[in-house]
Amino acid sequence: MTRVLVLNGPNLSRLGSREPDVYGSTSYDELAALLVEEGAAIGLEVEVRQTDDEAELVSWIHEAADGSIPVVLNPAAFTHYSYALRDAIAQRTAPLVEVHLSNPAAREEFRHTSVVAAVASGTIAGFGTGSYRLALRAIAEGVLR
Ligand code: DQA
């Protein structure tokens, strides 16, 4: 089984109760369980993590680079301003898919910029939990660089 890290940035542990009209009613724990289960069904060993700490997230991206581990990343608010995260992702040695539950392009102006998109394999946004599921499928199909 191919190992995949699903990494989540700040405030995503609060899924389910956080602005459900924007982010849906699925809790973080439910999302994590769903991704582990669906990943296993398509040959992926999925590990889901969340942190509110930029340094910790950067260290997980380093871990993935060192181990050539594919990543599904929801950088949350770090998407819009973390050059440290962007520079970490630029070191990747395996596919990395940027995902968002909502469609940032259809929201406030400050969400229209992603400083990480240019160093990701691609971006999937606006499909709720489906954004993560589609990203896992793309990794399983082996079509990403
Ligand atoms: C988000 C979108 C970001 O703009 C926001 O800061 C988040 C969640 C999403 O999944 O839609 O925390 O990444």
Question: Which SSEs are present, and which pair or pack?
Answer:
Elements: E1 2-8, H1 20-23, H2 28-41, E2 44-50, H3 54-67, E3 71-74, H4 83-89, E4 96-100, E5 122-125, H5 130-141
Parallel strand pairs: 1-2, 1-3, 3-4, 4-5
Helix pairs in contact: 3-4
What does this structure look like?
- The chain is of the alpha/beta class and 145 residues long.
- It has a single domain (2-140), classed as Dehydroquinase, class II (Rossmann fold, 3-Layer(aba) Sandwich), CATH 3.40.50.
- Helix content is 35%, strand content 19%.
- It contains 5 helices and 5 strands.
- It has helices spanning 20-23, 28-41, 54-67, 83-89, 130-141, and strands at 2-8, 44-50, 71-74, 96-100, 122-125.
- A 5-stranded parallel beta sheet has the order 2-1-3-4-5, with helices on both faces.
- α4 links the parallel β3 and β4 (96-100).
- The longest helix has 14 residues, at 28-41.
- It is globular, with a radius of gyration of 14 Å.
- The model has no long low-confidence stretch (mean pLDDT 98).
- Residues 11, 74, 76-77, 79, 100-102, 104, 111 line the site of 1,3,4-trihydroxy-5-OXO-cyclohexanecarboxylic acid.
Strand sequence of the main sheet, in spatial order? 2-1-3-4-5
Counting helices, strands and paired strands, the structural category is: alpha/beta
- Strand count: 5
User: Could you describe the largest sheet, including whether it forms a barrel?
Assistant: 5 strands, parallel
List the bound ligands.
1,3,4-trihydroxy-5-OXO-cyclohexanecarboxylic acid
Spatial extent as radius of gyration: 14 Å
User: If you average the pLDDT, what whole number results?
Assistant: 98
Shape: globular
Q: Beta-strand percentage?
A: 15-25%
CATH class: Alpha Beta
Distance between the termini: 19 Å
Tally of structural domains? 1
Order of helices and strands: EHHEHEHEEH
Which percent bin holds the helix content? 25-40%
What is the annotated CATH architecture? 3-Layer(aba) Sandwich
CATH topology heading:
Rossmann fold
- Count of DSSP-assigned helices: 5
